[in-house]
Structures are given as C-alpha cells and as structure tokens.
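hey so u asked for the seq, here:
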Amino acid sequence: MIPNSHNMTYGTMTIGNDPRITPIGRILRKFKIDELPQLWNVFKGNMSFVGPRPLDKSEFDCYPQHIKDVIYTVKPGITGVGSIVFRNEDKILSDPTVSPISLYKQKIAPHKGELELWYLENQSFYVDLMILLLTGLAIFVPNNQLIYRVFPSLPVKKF
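ran it, structure tokens below
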C-alpha cells in the first residue's frame, strides 16, 4: 500500500482494484502471499501460523461483543478460517450497489466473528494442519468450497 493509505477511502478495508495498492502489492495480494512478512512475527513468538487474524481497531469494533471478549485468547495467526472463507473479500466489498463499510459491518464482520469463534471451540493440531493445507489450496484454487467439506460444522455464509 502507499504511505498513509489507512487514512484514505475505506481505512484498512481493501476493495478490488483499490488505487492505494502498489504494483508489487497487487501481485502479492493476487497470490495471497502478502502476509509472508508476518513470518517474522511468528518467529518472534508474537503470532502463530493459524489463528484469528489481527485486526485494526475499526474492524475489531464491528465484531459482536461476545466474540470480541474471547477472540484473542489465542495468538493471532497468519491464516485462519476467515482468511479461507473470505479469500475474495475485496471482490465482495467491490459490489457497487452496497456501501463497503456497511457490508463489512452488517454481513462480513459478524460472520467472520462466528468463524473465529468456531476456531476457538475446535482448535486442535488437526484443525490447524487442515487450515494450513486449505490455505495453500486456496492460493491455487481460489473459489473452492472444500473447507465446508473438511469442517462440516463450520458456519456457512448467509449472504
């Protein structure tokens, strides 16, 4: 992103063809590898590979209170259930008929919160391993819905 991009347009939210994204950033985002620099945080012990994604305050505030109360009882992760289910969030937010901020607050954030709550209730080595594998698969097969077959109890998108 360009400098001070969080003060422009939609804050930390990114929509499709966002003008704040640099050409290199566009390539990294296309292949969903823009989180690779966060590996440093994993090695430092501040993050894990799998867990709830770290959120900006404005995004965190969109979550229901019961989820905000527990979401960070585990370390945030580079990937998580919400990262897979909402792999194309920027395209969802690009719907010209709806305000991206309203869509995020009313639909995406509550569902992401439920996904993170599901993760907290089901966290295990197996779940983490499958999330890592499904994240890799999502890079190469972006629109697959395999996550719902692997985890049939996962809350399904209602929009």
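The first helix runs from residue 23 to 30. The radius of gyration is 15 Å.
lmk if thats what u needed
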